Protein backbone atom coordinates (compact mmCIF):
# COMPACT_ATOMS: atom_id res chain seq x y z
CA UNK A 1 0.00 0.00 0.00
CA UNK A 2 1.45 3.39 -1.08
CA UNK A 3 0.57 5.37 2.06
CA UNK A 4 2.89 8.24 1.17
CA UNK A 5 1.25 8.68 -2.22
CA UNK A 6 -2.27 8.62 -0.78
CA UNK A 7 -1.42 11.12 1.95
CA UNK A 8 0.21 13.48 -0.56
CA UNK A 9 -2.84 13.26 -2.83
CA UNK A 10 -5.17 14.06 0.09
CA UNK A 11 -3.10 17.04 1.20
CA UNK A 12 -3.00 18.23 -2.40
CA UNK A 13 -6.80 17.94 -2.67
CA UNK A 14 -7.37 20.00 0.50
CA UNK A 15 -4.93 22.68 -0.69
CA UNK A 16 -6.66 22.77 -4.09
CA UNK A 17 -10.07 23.27 -2.46
CA UNK A 18 -8.66 25.99 -0.19
CA UNK A 19 -7.00 27.79 -3.14
CA UNK A 20 -10.24 27.66 -5.13
CA UNK A 21 -12.18 29.07 -2.15
CA UNK A 22 -9.74 31.92 -1.56
CA UNK A 23 -9.64 32.85 -5.25
CA UNK A 24 -13.44 32.64 -5.55
CA UNK A 25 -14.16 34.88 -2.56
CA UNK A 26 -11.58 37.43 -3.72
CA UNK A 27 -13.15 37.56 -7.20
CA UNK A 28 -16.85 37.29 -6.29
CA UNK A 29 -16.87 39.32 -3.06
CA UNK A 30 -13.84 41.51 -3.67
CA UNK A 31 -12.36 40.56 -0.26
CA UNK A 32 -8.72 40.85 0.72
CA UNK A 33 -6.53 37.73 0.64
CA UNK A 34 -6.49 37.42 4.46
CA UNK A 35 -10.30 37.71 4.79
CA UNK A 36 -10.83 35.22 1.94
CA UNK A 37 -8.32 32.77 3.45
CA UNK A 38 -9.84 33.07 6.93
CA UNK A 39 -13.36 32.49 5.62
CA UNK A 40 -12.19 29.51 3.53
CA UNK A 41 -10.40 27.84 6.47
CA UNK A 42 -13.29 28.19 8.93
CA UNK A 43 -15.69 26.95 6.24
CA UNK A 44 -13.67 23.89 5.21
CA UNK A 45 -12.91 22.99 8.83
CA UNK A 46 -16.62 23.44 9.70
CA UNK A 47 -15.66 25.60 12.73
CA UNK A 48 -18.54 27.97 12.01
CA UNK A 49 -17.35 31.27 13.52
CA UNK A 50 -19.73 33.17 11.22
CA UNK A 51 -19.24 35.23 8.11
CA UNK A 52 -16.39 37.74 7.91
CA UNK A 53 -18.54 40.06 5.77
CA UNK A 54 -22.09 39.68 4.43
CA UNK A 55 -22.14 37.38 1.40
CA UNK A 56 -23.76 37.91 -1.98
CA UNK A 57 -25.78 35.18 -3.69
CA UNK A 58 -22.69 34.06 -5.61
CA UNK A 59 -20.62 34.05 -2.43
CA UNK A 60 -23.20 31.93 -0.60
CA UNK A 61 -23.18 29.35 -3.42
CA UNK A 62 -19.38 29.22 -3.28
CA UNK A 63 -19.43 28.67 0.49
CA UNK A 64 -21.96 25.84 0.07
CA UNK A 65 -19.65 24.18 -2.47
CA UNK A 66 -16.68 24.64 -0.11
CA UNK A 67 -18.61 22.99 2.75
CA UNK A 68 -19.59 19.99 0.59
CA UNK A 69 -16.09 19.43 -0.75
CA UNK A 70 -14.45 20.30 2.57
CA UNK A 71 -16.51 17.76 4.53
CA UNK A 72 -15.86 15.18 1.80
CA UNK A 73 -12.12 15.80 2.04
CA UNK A 74 -12.21 15.46 5.83
CA UNK A 75 -14.11 12.16 5.63
CA UNK A 76 -11.53 10.90 3.14
CA UNK A 77 -8.68 11.96 5.46
CA UNK A 78 -10.30 10.21 8.43
CA UNK A 79 -10.76 7.01 6.40
CA UNK A 80 -7.08 7.04 5.36
CA UNK A 81 -5.90 7.62 8.94
CA UNK A 82 -8.15 4.83 10.23
CA UNK A 83 -6.92 2.43 7.54
CA UNK A 84 -3.33 3.47 8.23
CA UNK A 85 -3.69 2.64 11.91
CA UNK A 86 -5.64 -0.58 11.38
CA UNK A 87 -3.13 -1.86 8.81
CA UNK A 88 -0.34 -1.25 11.28
CA UNK A 89 1.57 1.23 9.18
CA UNK A 90 2.18 3.47 12.17
CA UNK A 91 3.34 0.53 14.26
CA UNK A 92 5.49 -0.62 11.34
CA UNK A 93 7.12 2.81 11.16
CA UNK A 94 7.97 2.69 14.87
CA UNK A 95 9.29 -0.87 14.45
CA UNK A 96 11.39 0.21 11.47
CA UNK A 97 13.03 2.99 13.48
CA UNK A 98 13.73 0.52 16.30
CA UNK A 99 15.26 -1.95 13.82
CA UNK A 100 17.40 0.80 12.30
CA UNK A 101 18.76 1.61 15.75
CA UNK A 102 19.51 -2.09 16.39
CA UNK A 103 21.45 -2.29 13.12
CA UNK A 104 23.42 0.85 14.02
CA UNK A 105 24.53 -0.85 17.25
CA UNK A 106 25.85 -3.96 15.47
CA UNK A 107 29.55 -4.61 14.96
CA UNK A 108 31.33 -7.51 13.20
CA UNK A 109 28.03 -8.76 11.82
CA UNK A 110 27.34 -10.30 8.40
CA UNK A 111 25.19 -8.89 5.61
CA UNK A 112 23.18 -11.17 3.31
CA UNK A 113 22.09 -9.55 0.05
CA UNK A 114 19.05 -11.31 -1.38
CA UNK A 115 16.66 -13.46 0.64
CA UNK A 116 15.75 -16.05 -1.97
CA UNK A 117 16.39 -19.79 -1.75
CA UNK A 118 20.16 -19.36 -1.41
CA UNK A 119 20.16 -16.24 0.74
CA UNK A 120 17.66 -17.66 3.23
CA UNK A 121 19.82 -20.76 3.75
CA UNK A 122 22.91 -18.58 4.23
CA UNK A 123 21.08 -16.54 6.86
CA UNK A 124 20.02 -19.70 8.74
CA UNK A 125 23.59 -21.07 8.81
CA UNK A 126 25.04 -17.76 9.98
CA UNK A 127 22.42 -17.41 12.69
CA UNK A 128 23.03 -21.00 13.84
CA UNK A 129 26.73 -20.14 14.01
CA UNK A 130 26.01 -17.32 16.45
CA UNK A 131 26.58 -14.51 13.94
CA UNK A 132 24.36 -11.42 13.83
CA UNK A 133 22.75 -11.13 10.38
CA UNK A 134 21.33 -8.17 8.45
CA UNK A 135 19.40 -9.00 5.27
CA UNK A 136 19.08 -6.63 2.31
CA UNK A 137 16.03 -7.36 0.15
CA UNK A 138 13.63 -5.34 -1.99
CA UNK A 139 10.83 -7.90 -2.44
CA UNK A 140 8.00 -7.14 0.07
CA UNK A 141 6.94 -10.79 0.32
CA UNK A 142 10.47 -11.95 1.11
CA UNK A 143 10.79 -9.18 3.67
CA UNK A 144 7.69 -10.51 5.44
CA UNK A 145 9.42 -13.91 5.72
CA UNK A 146 12.53 -12.13 7.02
CA UNK A 147 10.56 -10.37 9.74
CA UNK A 148 8.68 -13.56 10.67
CA UNK A 149 12.00 -15.38 11.18
CA UNK A 150 13.41 -12.63 13.36
CA UNK A 151 16.11 -11.21 11.08
CA UNK A 152 17.12 -7.58 10.99
CA UNK A 153 16.68 -6.23 7.46
CA UNK A 154 16.99 -3.22 5.20
CA UNK A 155 14.55 -2.76 2.34
CA UNK A 156 16.13 -1.68 -0.93
CA UNK A 157 18.60 -2.40 -3.72
CA UNK A 158 21.74 -4.10 -2.36
CA UNK A 159 23.93 -2.30 -4.93
CA UNK A 160 22.91 1.09 -3.52
CA UNK A 161 25.57 2.75 -1.34
CA UNK A 162 22.87 4.25 0.87
CA UNK A 163 21.28 0.85 1.53
CA UNK A 164 24.64 -0.81 2.23
CA UNK A 165 25.58 1.96 4.68
CA UNK A 166 22.22 1.53 6.45
CA UNK A 167 22.99 -2.19 6.77
CA UNK A 168 26.26 -1.29 8.51
CA UNK A 169 28.72 -2.22 5.75
CA UNK A 170 31.50 -0.18 7.39
CA UNK A 171 31.28 -2.27 10.58
CA UNK A 172 30.45 -5.67 9.06
CA UNK A 173 32.92 -8.58 9.03
CA UNK A 174 31.53 -10.11 5.86
CA UNK A 175 28.93 -9.89 3.12
CA UNK A 176 27.26 -12.58 1.03
CA UNK A 177 25.92 -11.41 -2.32
CA UNK A 178 23.22 -13.97 -3.14
CA UNK A 179 21.10 -11.93 -5.56
CA UNK A 180 19.49 -13.89 -8.41
CA UNK A 181 21.51 -12.19 -11.18
CA UNK A 182 25.28 -12.45 -11.76
CA UNK A 183 25.32 -8.88 -13.07
CA UNK A 184 23.61 -7.66 -9.90
CA UNK A 185 26.13 -9.57 -7.77
CA UNK A 186 28.98 -7.81 -9.63
CA UNK A 187 27.43 -4.40 -8.83
CA UNK A 188 26.84 -5.37 -5.19
CA UNK A 189 30.47 -6.50 -4.85
CA UNK A 190 31.81 -3.31 -6.47
CA UNK A 191 29.66 -1.09 -4.23
CA UNK A 192 30.60 -3.05 -1.11
CA UNK A 193 34.34 -2.96 -1.74
CA UNK A 194 34.23 0.75 -2.58
CA UNK A 195 32.70 1.41 0.85
CA UNK A 196 34.79 -1.06 2.86
CA UNK A 197 37.87 -2.55 1.19
CA UNK A 198 38.55 -4.84 4.20
CA UNK A 199 35.18 -6.59 4.28
CA UNK A 200 35.19 -10.27 3.23
CA UNK A 201 32.81 -10.72 0.28
CA UNK A 202 31.42 -14.06 -0.86
CA UNK A 203 29.51 -13.78 -4.15
CA UNK A 204 27.07 -16.16 -5.79
CA UNK A 205 27.68 -17.08 -9.42
CA UNK A 206 25.29 -18.92 -11.74
CA UNK A 207 27.49 -18.93 -14.85
CA UNK A 208 31.08 -20.16 -15.06
CA UNK A 209 32.24 -17.09 -17.01
CA UNK A 210 30.97 -14.76 -14.27
CA UNK A 211 33.55 -15.88 -11.71
CA UNK A 212 36.35 -13.86 -13.33
CA UNK A 213 34.19 -10.72 -13.34
CA UNK A 214 33.19 -11.18 -9.71
CA UNK A 215 36.83 -11.69 -8.74
CA UNK A 216 37.79 -8.53 -10.65
CA UNK A 217 35.00 -6.66 -8.85
CA UNK A 218 36.63 -7.59 -5.53
CA UNK A 219 34.90 -10.78 -4.38
CA UNK A 220 37.14 -12.76 -2.01
CA UNK A 221 35.31 -15.99 -2.81
CA UNK A 222 32.93 -16.93 -5.63
CA UNK A 223 30.49 -19.80 -5.09
CA UNK A 224 28.39 -21.54 -7.73
CA UNK A 225 25.37 -23.21 -6.05
CA UNK A 226 24.67 -25.30 -9.16
CA UNK A 227 28.32 -26.45 -9.34
CA UNK A 228 28.41 -27.37 -5.65
CA UNK A 229 25.03 -29.10 -5.93
CA UNK A 230 26.21 -31.17 -8.90
CA UNK A 231 29.42 -32.25 -7.18
CA UNK A 232 27.51 -33.13 -4.02
CA UNK A 233 25.01 -35.27 -5.94
CA UNK A 234 27.86 -37.16 -7.57
CA UNK A 235 29.65 -37.55 -4.22
CA UNK A 236 26.53 -39.11 -2.71
CA UNK A 237 26.93 -41.90 -5.25
CA UNK A 238 30.73 -42.19 -5.14
CA UNK A 239 31.56 -41.47 -1.46
CA UNK A 240 28.35 -41.55 0.60
CA UNK A 241 30.07 -42.47 3.90
CA UNK A 242 32.55 -39.57 3.66
CA UNK A 243 29.77 -37.13 2.89
CA UNK A 244 27.69 -38.46 5.77
CA UNK A 245 30.64 -38.01 8.14
CA UNK A 246 31.23 -34.42 7.00
CA UNK A 247 27.53 -33.61 7.38
CA UNK A 248 27.55 -34.97 10.91
CA UNK A 249 30.70 -33.05 11.86
CA UNK A 250 29.64 -29.78 10.24
CA UNK A 251 25.91 -29.66 10.95
CA UNK A 252 24.73 -32.20 13.53
CA UNK A 253 23.65 -30.89 16.93
CA UNK A 254 23.71 -34.40 18.42
CA UNK A 255 27.49 -34.75 18.79
CA UNK A 256 30.08 -32.50 20.41
CA UNK A 257 32.57 -32.44 17.52
CA UNK A 258 33.23 -29.33 15.46
CA UNK A 259 35.42 -28.41 12.52
CA UNK A 260 36.78 -24.88 12.74
CA UNK A 261 39.48 -22.58 11.35
CA UNK A 262 42.02 -20.94 13.65
CA UNK A 263 44.32 -18.12 12.58
CA UNK A 264 47.97 -18.37 13.75
CA UNK A 265 49.34 -15.26 15.45
CA UNK A 266 52.94 -14.14 14.94
CA UNK A 267 53.58 -14.86 18.64
CA UNK A 268 52.09 -18.37 18.50
CA UNK A 269 54.05 -21.41 19.72
CA UNK A 270 53.18 -23.06 16.40
CA UNK A 271 55.25 -20.59 14.31
CA UNK A 272 58.22 -22.44 12.83
CA UNK A 273 56.85 -25.90 13.65
CA UNK A 274 56.07 -28.48 11.00
CA UNK A 275 52.55 -29.81 10.73
CA UNK A 276 53.55 -33.09 12.40
CA UNK A 277 55.28 -31.22 15.27
CA UNK A 278 52.19 -29.08 15.79
CA UNK A 279 50.01 -32.21 15.91
CA UNK A 280 52.27 -33.68 18.65
CA UNK A 281 51.95 -30.41 20.59
CA UNK A 282 48.18 -30.84 20.53
CA UNK A 283 47.89 -34.44 21.70
CA UNK A 284 45.22 -33.48 24.25
CA UNK A 285 43.69 -30.70 22.18
CA UNK A 286 41.91 -30.47 18.86
CA UNK A 287 43.42 -32.32 15.91
CA UNK A 288 45.07 -30.19 13.19
CA UNK A 289 43.98 -31.48 9.78
CA UNK A 290 45.63 -29.00 7.41
CA UNK A 291 47.33 -25.64 7.04
CA UNK A 292 45.96 -22.96 4.72
CA UNK A 293 48.54 -20.49 3.47
CA UNK A 294 47.44 -17.14 2.11
CA UNK A 295 49.29 -16.06 -1.04
CA UNK A 296 48.14 -12.89 -2.76
CA UNK A 297 44.55 -13.34 -1.62
CA UNK A 298 44.49 -17.01 -2.63
CA UNK A 299 44.61 -19.92 -0.17
CA UNK A 300 46.73 -23.03 -0.70
CA UNK A 301 45.93 -26.13 1.33
CA UNK A 302 49.05 -27.80 2.74
CA UNK A 303 48.72 -31.39 4.03
CA UNK A 304 52.40 -32.42 4.03
CA UNK A 305 53.85 -33.39 7.43
CA UNK A 306 56.91 -31.20 6.65
CA UNK A 307 54.88 -28.05 6.04
CA UNK A 308 56.17 -25.18 8.20
CA UNK A 309 53.56 -23.09 10.01
CA UNK A 310 53.94 -19.33 9.77
CA UNK A 311 52.21 -16.37 11.37
CA UNK A 312 49.03 -15.52 9.46
CA UNK A 313 48.41 -19.13 8.38
CA UNK A 314 44.99 -20.68 8.97
CA UNK A 315 44.75 -24.04 10.72
CA UNK A 316 41.87 -26.37 9.92
CA UNK A 317 41.11 -28.20 13.16
CA UNK A 318 38.57 -30.68 14.53
CA UNK A 319 37.59 -31.35 18.13
CA UNK A 320 35.22 -30.53 20.97
CA UNK A 321 34.45 -26.95 22.00
CA UNK A 322 36.81 -27.25 24.99
CA UNK A 323 39.60 -28.64 22.79
CA UNK A 324 39.13 -25.89 20.23
CA UNK A 325 39.32 -23.19 22.92
CA UNK A 326 42.53 -24.75 24.25
CA UNK A 327 44.11 -24.82 20.79
CA UNK A 328 43.05 -21.24 20.09
CA UNK A 329 44.99 -20.25 23.22
CA UNK A 330 48.14 -21.80 21.73
CA UNK A 331 47.61 -20.27 18.29
Automatic annotation (TrEMBL):
Keywords on record: Ion channel, Ion transport, Membrane, Transmembrane, Transmembrane helix, Transport
Listed GO biological process terms: potassium ion transport
Localization per Swiss-Prot or TrEMBL: Cell membrane
TM regions (residue ranges): 7-28, 61-91
Molecular function GO labels: monoatomic cation transmembrane transporter activity
Domain RCK C-terminal, first and last residues per copy: 247-331
Membrane topology, record value: Multi-pass membrane protein
Residues of the RCK N-terminal domain: 107-223
Main location: membrane
Gene Ontology CC annotation, any one: plasma membrane
PROSITE patterns the record matches: RCK_C, RCK_N
Keyword ATP-binding among UniProt keywords: no
Protein name per Swiss-Prot or TrEMBL: Potassium channel protein
Source species of the chain: hydrothermal vent metagenome
Organism lineage: unclassified sequences, metagenomes, ecological metagenomes
